[in-house]
Sequence to fold (356 residues):
Amino acid sequence: MKRLVVEDLFLSFDEGPVLKGVDLQVEPGELWAILGPSGCGKTTLLRAIAGFLRPQRGRIWIGEQEVFGPSVWLPPEKRRVGYVPQEGALFPHLTVADNIAFGLPKMLWCQTRVQRMVELVGLSGLEKKRPAELSGGQQQRVAVARALAPWPSLVLLDEPFNALDAGLRRTVREDVRQALKATGATAILVTHDQEEAFSWADRVAVMRSGWVVQTGDPAFLYRHPRDLETALFLGERTVLPGTREGDHVRTPLGPLPIDPRSPARQREVLAVLRPEQVQLKPGHQGKLLRAQYFGHDLLLEAELPGGLKLISRVLGASSLSSGDPIQVEVLGAVMVYDKEAAGSAPVAQADRAGAS
Ligand code: ATP
Fold:
């Protein structure tokens, strides 16, 4: 499998620019997720990499081969890219096996290849079925098997699990992940679902308004968003106003240690606390508003005098009930961001060594 390099990619439709200078570097065998809100340009980027759309500027390499550049244009069929769309891409009149074999040369070894793909995605025994006889999850498995069958250099998955219900979605995406890992594939999954991106990918690129604003491994991104907007996008949080004092920030909860990776430069800041950093105990600082039970964990919402709300996530159960007086303890350092944040600029691929 091959490395993918995207450099300063710019693509505009009649309505205006959608990709505004995207940089991305995916190493061979890595699974990436491109995570961003609806309309930020994720699918457009994927389609440009596949060759279905022609950007106005930039470069794309797949392995050693430049597939797009100022004087280079390789058509999609020559890029050796496997593309898995959202849904509905199977040929309804062909069997599972024939769908997977579509595009492979008609040679004897192809049968072995198709059988291997069927096993890899967990569809043994269903080779002769047609798409209408399969569940949504099984159909998406066929689509993945078909994308992998011709030994692509790169596999691109455009929100392929969207149509599946929550439980099935988790199983199918984990099986697809394992199938990609088993073939050593380099792959990119587009999603607007943070949990999906974090649990599935080795590395994540966060996109916003046509730019990749941050890349990194999931744990690093979650702990060290580079700006407030990214921090707010990447999961639940409490935001507290504060004043920087050396390596601490003074907040309504008292002084909290500042994470040294924080980008804040000004004195007046906003501190972002993840729910698992916030511990609530019996005390006299505020009161518990409500507890939401999720089985594996519990989401607690508390209020301090002045109306400041906090959320806390704890494993298992809690002895606290709604209305109980509480005390707050914050675990670890907090990320702080300038209150008067300048607009978020794009970044080149950063934090590559940012594993934690
Ligand atoms: P979603 O998560 O909702 O699929 P996305 O991040 O994948 O969103 P894109 O599908 O890349 O977003 O679309 C980005 C913007 O480009 C949108 O405003 C969309 O309307 C516009 N767009 C996409 N394809 C075209 C096209 N072929 N012609 C004109 N505008 C387009």
